[in-house]
Amino acid sequence: MVVYAGQGDARRSMALLWRAEAQAEKRTGPGPKPGLSVDAIVDAAIAVADAEGMAALSMRRVGERLGRSGMALYTYVPSKSELVDLMYDRALAELPAEHDLRGGWRTAVTAWAEQTRACYLRHPWVLQVSQARPVLGPNEFAVIETLVRILRETGLEAGILRGVVALLADFVRGAARTVAESRQAPAETGVPDEEWWHARAALLEEVAPGFAGRYPSVTWLETQAVTPRRDESVGHLEGIAGPAFTTGLAVLLDGIEATMARAAHGDPARSRS
Amino acid sequence: MVVYAGQGDARRSMALLWRAEAQAEKRTGPGPKPGLSVDAIVDAAIAVADAEGMAALSMRRVGERLGRSGMALYTYVPSKSELVDLMYDRALAELPAEHDLRGGWRTAVTAWAEQTRACYLRHPWVLQVSQARPVLGPNEFAVIETLVRILRETGLEAGILRGVVALLADFVRGAARTVAESRQAPAETGVPDEEWWHARAALLEEVAPGFAGRYPSVTWLETQAVTPRRDESVGHLEGIAGPAFTTGLAVLLDGIEATMARAAHGDPARSRS
DNA sequence: CCTGATAGTTTTAGGGCGTAAAGAGATGTC
DNA sequence: GACATCTCTTTACGCCCTAAAACTATCAGG
After folding, report:
1. I need a surface site. Which of A24, A227, A261, B96 has the fewest CB within 10 A?
2. B224, A133: Cβ pair inside 8 Å?
3. 0.70 exceeded by the pTM?
């Protein structure tokens, strides 16, 4: 029988995440001064994960980077799980909290999406965090707050907006995940990003003869040439899967506009059968 | 220095994934008959993951369920990593390959999205698979093939369609992930899904006083009442985050329609500044 | 029938991991 | 100086994946 973290543990971990404001208590009393800090530990852990991936992240490894044993970390952090939560929230701190709304919500959302995507790609391990429980740290909320503030410009009602927020957040995360995946193999084999699909396709045709006949639509989709599409407003993050991100985002934004138009007509719910 | 799987290993793993067609070779020669099979192992592994989550999945655990030692599995499967790939592809086999297109692409895409989401929710561990490398199994391609076949009805060109496919696949996966996350804690604490947010919000306000002032837009979004919205065509999968899925999907489909309309006007690239 | 090769399975072992528990050493208060 | 307290290390346990060796059941050829 596995015992999961209860409400009490949830409170401890939340307190650590939100510690900045409430933890100005002065330290007094006997005992040596702390040689480490939560921040230093989180920094070291992020450095390990950035350099060698989430699989290489271990308490011993992080301690080693700080010149300590792995167990020393437990003075500052209750467990590895909490450390990962802290890493996650710290990575999101890189994102700006404000966006210029003078160019309209569409431009601002595009900037938000690109920057968030770029952050995920700088720290691909973020995409592996929190698959089984929410983190709910201050910076995660800040990212959403930023997006919601932009989207309120659309005038859409809250119920719809919730769906739009989820749609945008999920799309950006998923798109980043796709890129992070395709970057894995090339880093080892030396195949440049662009040729990754063709190398995989060759392997597929070898091991699965008749691929093209079995998946005609996929084959059609992948063999069609990329439409030259220089859309400067969304275009400076190209590369593998870059065009898919750009066009996907454009479709999404068009959907928001269509929903706005429909709401303006006094037809808030989708009426098409 | 960690050594990653090379091209040769990739070929072995692909051969296992695609084994159905090419592996009808009769077994002859001395030695005992195989008492297990790849299929039986994958079934047992999925049963373990469904029941106890990905964290509880271990070679020993799967072997035990089959009345063998953990090492016995290595006769059939090269490593745990390949086994997980096989589990992933097998789970996706539950999804139908065909969709009725007589109701139009919009209805068919909705059905595809709901069924895919339901599959993810039946096997939440699927959402934790393949975070660092693509799987590329036959059923994963079948899921995409199905979606692309539907979307070709829109008449959109391939370049745009790639973006739409990514958008849809990422959204469905992300939405399912959100639900799977929020289901984790309640299962232990007995809090019903619906009240999860309110319990968390209370904890937040306790540990982070001034939350509402710091994240006004998020607070606004979450405190607004849910719009009663009975859209029967997409509405039979409600529950927590269900409305967000429904509205997000509606926005997405509207975006596809808007893109189609724009393409029909001879304006394939998004022209809005 | 016997022998030897072969292949399924288990045992053993090695190097990871997270972390509980106990000890060592430093630092402050009294 | 004594002692409480705090940081940090050591040791240890149980789990993980899996390489290698040992065991065992089966079949082919003599």
Report:
1. A24
2. no
3. yes
